[in-house]
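Input structure tokens:
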């Protein structure tokens, strides 16, 4: 059954359907604004020197500060999109200070964990399950896409993860803007179905960093990031989730070099922590 989240209509009737923005807070935390929606992803507000628990006694130190404090989040956030329940995506600061009435779209595992923390406005999705978010006369379809947090033998010991396809439908007909967020994943065969279903992705946010624990790769490194750019074939790709923790072993500089070598520089946009990427939305492609 398709879940539906109905949000209060905007106070003003003027909704900007021609442009949007992505503000990069750090790690996998961004604030997406488009078509009247304000969306927060994977909230992580620990500071440099703080440690995050990744399970099984494994900890990692944060090497950067978030671009803003959690208290500085905009007041008009509509919902949170959470790829999985891990300390570098939903930390103890967030558990203590985030408004527990905010809707959270996430995995079933994360929804169960969040319920124990007092967050009960959750919308769990299984892989390829879709939900609809309505705000005024604008609809947003969110589909959970495959993610694999490391090789199969390791994946079973880690929280289940999902990617997300966001299809903004401000007018009747074809979606006018498709935004894809990979979530923490390594490249694997199930991802090939994404471009088959969505051959015209406008913008992709790539969780990179080359996370390694005990030598095992858990998120895409530079080489796999280039594979992702080629596979998903998005018009624009923005790397996030890099350089923030000790366990991130593939720095952004490696990805930039790999992108240059693959002659893909025109397909990638780089956004520094604290900066905003602005995009224009054109008529739907057929």
């Amino acid at each position: 059954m398709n879940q539906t989240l109905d949000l209060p209509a905007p106070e003003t009737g003027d909704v900007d359907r021609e442009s949007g923005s992505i503000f990069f807070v750090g790690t996998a935390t961004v604030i997406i604004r488009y078509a009247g929606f304000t969306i927060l992803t994977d909230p992580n507000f620990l500071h440099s020197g703080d440690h995050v628990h990744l399970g099984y006694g494994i900890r990692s130190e944060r090497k950067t500060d978030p671009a803003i404090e959690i208290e500085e989040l905009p007041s008009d956030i509509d919902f949170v999109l959470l790829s999985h329940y891990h300390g570098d995506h939903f930390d103890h600061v967030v558990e203590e200070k985030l408004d527990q009435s905010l809707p959270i779209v996430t995995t079933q595992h994360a929804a169960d964990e969040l319920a124990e923390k007092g967050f009960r406005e959750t919308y769990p999705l299984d892989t390829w399950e879709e939900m609809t978010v309505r705000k005024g006369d604008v609809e947003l379809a969110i589909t959970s896409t495959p993610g694999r947090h490391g090789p199969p033998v390791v994946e079973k010991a880690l929280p289940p993860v999902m990617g997300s396809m966001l299809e903004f439908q401000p007018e009747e007909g074809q979606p006018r803007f498709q935004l894809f967020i990979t979530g923490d994943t390594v490249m694997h065969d199930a991802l090939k179905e994404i471009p088959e279903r969505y051959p015209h992705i406008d913008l992709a946010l790539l969780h990179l960093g080359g996370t390694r624990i005990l030598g095992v790769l858990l998120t895409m490194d530079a080489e796999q990031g280039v594979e992702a750019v080629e596979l998903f074939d998005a018009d624009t790709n923005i790397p996030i989730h890099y350089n923030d923790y000790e366990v991130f072993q593939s720095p952004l500089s490696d990805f930039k070099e790999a992108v240059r070598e693959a002659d893909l520089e025109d397909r990638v946009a780089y956004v520094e922590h604290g900066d905003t990427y602005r995009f224009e939305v054109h008529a739907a492609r057929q």
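The chain has one domain: 3-7+16-269. The domain at 3-7+16-269 is CATH 3.60.15.10 (Metallo-beta-lactamase; Chain A).
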